[in-house]
Amino acid sequence: MVSSIRPLDESVVNKIAAGEIIISPMNALKEMMENSIDAGATALDILVRDGGMNLLQVTDNGSGINKEDMPLLCERFTTSKLTKFEDLESIATYGFRGEALASISHIARVTVTTKTVEDKCAWRVSYAEGRIIGEPKPVAGKDGTVILVEDLFYNMPSRLQALRSPSEEYAKILDVVGRYSVHCDHVAFSCKKFGDSQFSSTVRADSSTEERIRVVFGNAVARSLLHFEMKPLEELDITRVTGKVSNLDFTFKKSTTPVFFINNRLVTCNPLARALRQIYANHLPKGSKPFIYLSIQINPQVLDVNVHPTKREVRFLHQDEIIEKIAHELNDVLSNIDSSRSFKASTILTGKSLNSTQRTSSRASSAISKSSQPQIRGYALNAPTIVKRHENKLVRTDASQAKITTFLNPGQSQAASQQTAEEQILEYPELTDNKQPTGSAAEDTQVHSSQVAAHNDKALNYQNSAQERVDVNLSSVKRLREAVDNSAHRDLTDIFANLIFVGVVDPERRLASIQHDLKLFLVDYGAICYELFYQICLTDFANYGKIIVESESDDDLKLVNILSGFEHLTKDFALTIVQKLWDMREMLAEYFAIDFTAHTEAPNLEEIKLKSIPLLLKGYTPPFAKLPFFIYRLGTKVNWDNEEPCLDGIMRQISLLYIPEVIELVDTSNEDVLKEERIHFVTRSEEMSSALENVLFPCIKRRFLAPHNLLKDVIEIANLPGLYKVFERC
């Protein structure tokens, strides 16, 4: 049976409305304080018991309430602030709907004592469910109004149970009182618990904004304040923006919700908060939180205050433009002072006297500290500091230290980057040696290190050529570089900049492990190297070294022969690829060090040979087994018609060529596997591990900007405190 539609009982409607407006004691107090400020009060005294659930009282010295108006005081939609809807366009008071006291009276017991200047005595009356109980009674009292709210949510047990503990609700009350205390000049605020002899918060009427912030948020905030003010923006209907923000010496770790007043209304403007926090994130150390207080005055005609039951949100025109202007101004203010910082620092003394060598080192270290930016002032050198050793948070490796094995690798001591281009001459054996390794079951199954060394004797021959560095002014390249900068993930970049290479986990899936601080990560070094080499391509655009490709037979370097390994590729299509690359040879040679050679200017396409490919990183050679794929994709996957996609596509293909190749796992203890195959696997694995440890990851630490899309390729697999919980040692 379908239920019939019928109107709700008036008491149900009123309770529902009250539940939307009064969510907690803090909301009730906020509404009462705003009424007092609208009445011209210069002093507010607040009394709270049981977090406001049992008793909530606000006493002010405002204009009071006329005795004739008291019957309408707690009825819904009765107000003295406006008469028609259009008045909202010029509203300058906190209240306007006439719902606050009405809502409170439907969920609590309300008693009002008030006196105007003209009255000879005060008048007291109680309210329930929006209606007056009896007639106002004359009592002794001062000018102003006292609103007493008792037993909040007494008739809504579910809402009462949802409230937090009295102490937490009282903390919310102190927070909202503090925020109004900061903003409302010439208004005194005091708040205390019922029965306490001392006030929890007291702000005098003549206190400055800085003093109010000190009382509410503490000395640390008050000492680090900057005055913030913007000129009026008439085109955006902004008449005034002023406030106080923390400077760059402020290192508060606890996050504080920004204090925003828009047209004197306490609001939570999340887009503005995010924008300003992002500005601070670019200047403050990681983990530091700023303090922000802003008062924004907007033309009331472009401001909509009637968008939220609790009035915690407003809407205004040109919101994005206004937020951008404020954020830009804040960035300018912080940038102008970002020349000196103060950090807390102390020396850790073990109790032993310093020898002469240590004293010399200390003086040198101090000199370096003084010359570096940002400046560090105020070292605590007066007394030794005893620091407790926490084994579960002790980092036993230093990312800045080198391993002794790096000194055993020839050629690694040379500079990694030079101003002159370099040439590397390498043979291309993959096209000439197609024989499979052979062996017998009777041969030894053990792979000896001497045998591996014999296979791993590939010396790199570098030749320097005097070539000045070319300055590139292509707008397309600049845009690609900016895109890389904008996509950088700050925390991930920090992990890579301070990593310690642990080792290769799985060469077949290209997984390696790295350590950062107390954490161990599993990373996809294939994906990381792809982004690294792409960034190298952009940074060194048109300034690459060359890898001169040589082979025992010149026929092996012909492009058609390089492409002949693709069974699905017809000869005509292969010649089409060769023709495209030959047509673009001048650009490829000038920008990318990719050279092709032929005997004549208009050669037979089948005679065109590969002469060189770019050298991106000294000490690392790309896998030549991927050269056919490089030539094929260069001819088929690049958009040659538009400049920016073309250059980007070529650099992407070069990056793919340089990614370390997949090494299929081989069980070296299995006697059924040929000995040569096992030696080949061990050789390639050791070469790859050495390249990653001594060349690739050191380069990643120096110059890599980790993009956001690498987050999926970096996984935390362990951390030292977590291991201590399990093993109690490490």
UniProtKB/TrEMBL annotation:
Its main location: nucleus. Pfam families: DNA_mis_repair, HATPase_c_3, Mlh1_C. GO terms for molecular function: ATP binding; ATP hydrolysis activity; ATP-dependent DNA damage sensor activity; mismatched DNA binding. Residues 354-374 are annotated as: Disordered. GO terms for biological process: meiotic heteroduplex formation; meiotic mismatch repair; reciprocal meiotic recombination. GO terms for cellular component: MutLalpha complex; MutLbeta complex; MutLgamma complex. It comes from the Eukaryota. Residues 356-373 have a biased composition (Low complexity). The keyword DNA damage applies. Gene3D superfamilies: 3.30.230.10, Histidine kinase-like ATPase, C-terminal domain. It is found in: Nucleus. InterPro entries: DNA_mismatch_repair_CS (IPR014762), DNA_mismatch_S5_2-like (IPR013507), HATPase_C_sf (IPR036890), Mlh1_C (IPR032189), MutL/Mlh/PMS (IPR002099), MutL/Mlh/Pms-like (IPR038973), Ribosomal_Su5_D2-typ_SF (IPR020568), Ribsml_uS5_D2-typ_fold_subgr (IPR014721). Residues 213-335 form the DNA mismatch repair protein S5 domain. The keyword DNA repair applies. Keywords: DNA damage, DNA repair, Nucleus. NCBIfam families: mutl (TIGR00585). Belongs to the DNA mismatch repair MutL/HexB family. This is DNA mismatch repair protein S5 domain-containing protein. It comes from Torulaspora delbrueckii.
